[in-house]
Structure formats: structure tokens, C-alpha cells
Amino acid sequence: MMILICIITLAIAVAAQWQVKRMYKRFSLIPSRSGYTGAEAARAILQTAGIADVKILEHEQIMGDHYDPRNKRLVLSSQTYHGTSLAALGVAAHEAGHALQHKAAYAPLQLRMAAVGVTHFASQMVAILPLVGIATGLLSSATGLTIMALAWSMIMVFNLVTLPVEFDASRRARQLLTQLGFITGRAEQNGVSQVLNAAAMTYVAAFVTSLLYMLGYLLPLFAGGRQRS
User: Fold this and answer.
1) Of 23, 78, 139, 148, which has the fewest CB atoms closer than 10 Å, so is most exposed?
2) What domain count does the chain have?
3) For position 220, what pLDDT does the model report?
4) Mean pLDDT for the stretch of residues 66-77
5) Are the beta carbons of 189 and 178 closer than 8 angstroms?
6) What percent of the chain has a predicted confidence (pLDDT) above 90?
7) Could you tell me the CA-to-CA distances from 31 to 39, 67, 158, 174 in Å, in that order?
8) What residues are paired with 66 via a beta bridge?
9) pLDDT of residue 27
10) What is the mean pLDDT of residues 154-170?
11) Distance (Å, whole) CA 69 – CA 105
């Protein structure tokens, strides 16, 4: 069963990554009519929301754009920072949307921030525990399955909470880009939506992956319990 789960989750992850790269590449070739860069769009969105304490930084990692809530930094790839394409505007506005969530104390974002430490520990457990169990044989099957199921459940909950955070940021991005005049017309709105929707599917894929792994370790425990009874 675990081999089947590995195959399914790998296929889901590869498909999601392929789709987001395809959409990003497609719409990175289509310039917006406004001609504004991603950095300019992000800066305008922050200013409109009255946010003056978030720095907008450039880095060279492709598609490594993110908002750092702890240090209040909006980090954009060079392609997004300088780009005037629909993809650049959509990604920049999405990350700026996280800054708006932070200012508004958006509950799912607050919960995700609080769960980062626990989730990081759980991620280490699911990576290390199988190797330790195989190498040492110190853990019984039931104990190992229980720990792995708990660890994956923590990761699954984190990924579940991430979904409204990402979908809300994309909703804000589409709305603000239109309101501020960075994109105009149905074609540009659809282009930005396709980029953001594809990116959102990577988070859906992460949630589905963690859910399947949690069930993969949980179901044998229930099966074993029924057999003993």
C-alpha cells in the first residue's frame, strides 16, 4: 500500500509542478498593457493598504517568490521583480496579498505561522524515523506506525490551513490588480487567474499527499486493532 501511495503522490506532485511551470512560462511571455513591473505593483498594493514596514527584496531563484512574515520581507525573483508580464504581476500581487493578510491578522495565516515549528519537527520525524526503525529495530511496528501517523497528521493539518491562506491571497491579488489598473480587460484577468490557480494546485497537491500518507500509516493500526479484537 505504501508503494502505491508513493506512486500516486509522486504523480500528483509532478503534475502540479508541471502545470504551474507551464502556466508561468506561458504568461511570462505576455506583457501587461499597463507596463508596470512586479515590484511596482507590489509596492503600490502595500502603499494602498497603508503598509510601510515591509521591504521588497530581489533574489535570483526562479519561482522562489515568498512573503516572510517574521522579518516582514516580500522577496521576489528577478523575473517577477523586473518583469512586466501577466505572470510577474500575478505572482507579485499574490505575495503582497500575504502582507495584507498579516496586517489584518488573518486567522489562517496566524495559525500557519504558529504551527511552523511543530510542522518542521514533524517533517524531520517522517524523514528520519523510518531509517532509525530499520537500522535499529528498537521500535515495534505499532509504535512506529503511531508516531508516523501522528507526524503526518500534523503536516496534513498545516497543509489544510495553508489552503485558505493561499486562495485568499490569490483572490486579493486579482482584485487589487484590477482595482489599481495594473491589469485591464477579461483576457488579462483570465491570464493572471490561470497562473494563480495553477500555483494554488501545488498546495492542494501537498495537502492530498499528506492526507494519503497519514491514512497509509493509520489504517494498518485500525486493521491490527480489529484483528486483535
Assistant:
1) 78
2) 1
3) 86
4) 94
5) yes
6) 80
7) 15, 24, 35, 16
8) 75
9) 97
10) 97
11) 11
Across the strands, what pairs with 76?
58
Hey, is 67 helix, strand or coil? strand
Angle between helices 107-136 and 86-103 (to 10 degrees): 100
Task: For 123-140, give the DSSP string.
Answer: HHHHHHHHHHHHHH--S-
| The predicted structure's pLDDT at residue 224 | 61
Q: What is the dihedral of CA 72, 77, 83, 85, to 10 degrees?
A: -90
Least Cα distance to 1 among 145, 196, 162 occurs for 145
Window from 51-65, 87-101, 185-199 with minimum mean pLDDT = 51-65
Residue 21's domain comprises: 2-228
142 — pLDDT class (breaks 50, 70, 90) = confident
Nearest-CA neighbor of 149 among 88, 99, 206, 217? 217
Q: Scanning the structure block, which residue is given the C-alpha cell 524523514?
A: 127
- Contacts with 215 (C-beta within 8 Å, 6 or more apart), sequence order: none
With a CB cutoff of 8 Å and minimum separation 6, the contacts of 156 are 207, 210, 211, 213, 214
* Cα distances (angstroms) measured from residue 114 to each of 102, 111, 150, 203: 13, 5, 18, 18
pTM of the full structure: 0.88
Q: Are 48 and 180 in contact (CB under 8 A)?
A: yes
- Which grid coordinates are listed for 153? 497528521
- b/e map 99-120, b = 16+ CB within 10 Å: bbbbeeebebbbebeebeeebe
